[in-house]
Each structure stands twice: as structure tokens, then as C-alpha cells.
Amino acid sequence: MAEMMLRAGCPVMVWARRPESLTAYVELGATTAADPAALGAACDVVGLCVTGDADVREIVYTRGLLAAMRPGAVLMIHATIFPETCREIARDAAGRGVIVLDAPVSGSAARARAGTLLVIVGGDPAALERVRPLVETYAGPIIEVGEVGAAMTAKLINNLMAAVNYATAYDALALAAELGLSPDHLREVALTGSGRNYGFELMPRAHRHDRALHIARILGKDVELALAALPQVRDAPLGQLARRAIATIAGFAEGKGLLVTPSPPDPPTAS
Questions:
Q1: Residue 269's pLDDT is what?
Q2: Is residue 262 part of a domain?
Q3: Domain CATH number, residue 6
Q4: Domain boundary among 91, 125, 146
Q5: How far apart are CA 170 and CA 136, in angstroms?
Q6: In this structure, are residues 128 and 101 in contact, taking their beta carbons and an 8 Å threshold?
Q7: pLDDT at 267
Q8: What is the chain's alpha carbon radius of gyration, rounded to the nearest angstrom?
């Protein structure tokens, strides 16, 4: 996302908890901030991309990002966190004249570089229009869904569906194997037939040890977050299937239950 803003000629300042990750962006023309407070003081728009709820709170409160931001500035929370955390930060930010948009993303680095990353937005439509030229450097669909917190709710449900799609795809491939049909062949059929879902696309990557570890960690975190935030689905079929999908992917990381041909290693990236 930062790379695409830089390539579009936008002035970008970056900060990261791992300073070594910033080298590629500095080479593209980014400036760096010493800490989140310095970043907040310097920028009219801040995009926050960290792993989870505790990380967002650490950056926004403990490390002083919000306290340093100027009135009129916009804080976009791209991480997937509790909807209530977004609303809490938005209330605190409003007291300082800062506008919060919850703006979780869905997609990959490849989609960001293609300008097709999905960005779901909750919050002030006028603030979104202000930041839209920046977001459009890396986003394709930008979907507005309502007030602050609504985008996180939509993202959590989306992530549950991603896990459920994976679980049902795995069940279909396991059935194919039981009936003597090549799971690879069934996957090929499903990818172009009416039974297609994202799980069939994800399966070869999840069959690689390194990717299975990553997918189980990230998707597992999001599923557990969704189940905690949305009590309606904890014991419902949606929640049960999602949990089973994460267990299946974690098993792949240990070499268990492999069905289809693993994908080749990911190509190296600048970041």
C-alpha cells in the first residue's frame, strides 16, 4: 500500500516496529518517523497497518499516535480488530478533532500492486472523499458500509466465510479422494464450475508448510476475533466450520491431511 502511494507520487512518511522493513520504501522516496507520535504530528492522514487489537491500542494510545495528531487529521485503521475498539478510538479522537475511519482491507500484496485491494470503510463519507485519492492508488473496490465499526463487522463476517469456504472445499476434496477421484482434478473442475469458492484457490498455498503456518496464524486470529466479537455465531454452524478450517490448515503445517499439489514458493518481493 505504501509502495503504491509512493509510485503514484504521493508524499509518504513511514514508521514500523521493525525498522529494517522500511528500507524499500525509503529507496522509493519515503521519509521516516522516529516513532508513532512523530508520524502523527507530521501527517494529515495516517494509515495504521498492524496485526490485531492490542497492537492498535499500543500504537494509538501507549506510543502516543492519537495524542500527537492535529485537528482535522484522518486516522484510517486498516488492521482487523474489534468493532467496539474502533468506536472507542473514534470517540476519543473526536474530542481532539481527529476523524477515524475503520478501513480493514482484504486481499494480498499482489492485489495491492494491481490496484485491486478491497477496502471496506465505515465512518464519515466526507472524510473518505478526502482520502480517496490516496486509497485509490492501491484499492479497487472501496465499499462504504455505514458508521465507524460497521466495516470491521463486515470484515469479521467476511473472514468467517473465508474459513467456512475453505472447510467446505476441503470436505469436497476429501470426498473425491474417498471415491477414487483425484482431488487435483476435482479442484480444477470446481475452479471453473458452479461449485467454485475461494477455498479451492487457497488450497495449494495452504499445502505448503510455510504458507500453512502463516494462513493458520492470520486467519486463525481473525476467526477467533470474530467469534469473540460476534457471540451470535460462536456455537452456530458458521463458527464451528470456521474453527475446523483453522485446525485443518494448522494440520497441513505439520504435514497432515495433504490432498492437492502444493503451489510453488512465493516470488521474492521488495518489501
A1: 45
A2: no
A3: 3.40.50.720
A4: 146
A5: 35
A6: yes
A7: 57
A8: 20
Q: What is the pTM of this model?
A: 0.88
Q: How far is Cα 20 from Cα 121, in angstroms, rounded to an integer?
A: 30
Which residue ranges of the chain lie beneath pLDDT 50?
268-271
Residues 6+ apart with CB under 8 A from 37: 63, 64, 65, 67, 68
Same-domain check for residues 97 and 161: no
Give the active site residues.
Answer: 155
169 Cβ contact list (under 8 Å, min separation 6): 187, 190, 197, 198, 199, 200, 202, 203
Residue ranges making up the domain that contains 138: 2-146
Q: What is the C-alpha to C-alpha distance for residues 40 and 67, in angstroms, rounded to an integer?
A: 8
* Residue that terminates a domain, selected from 146, 181, 209: 146
**Is the domain of 157 the same as that of 142?**
no
Under the phi-then-psi rule, with left for phi > 0, alpha for psi from -120 to 50, and beta for the rest, what region is 149? left
DSSP code for 30: -
Residue 79: DSSP 8-state: S
**269: in domain:** no
Q: Per the domain annotation, does 240 fall within a domain?
A: yes
- Number of domains the chain is built from: 2
E runs forming strands in 64-157: 74-77, 99-102, 105-106, 117-122, 139-146
C-alpha cell at 197: 469458492
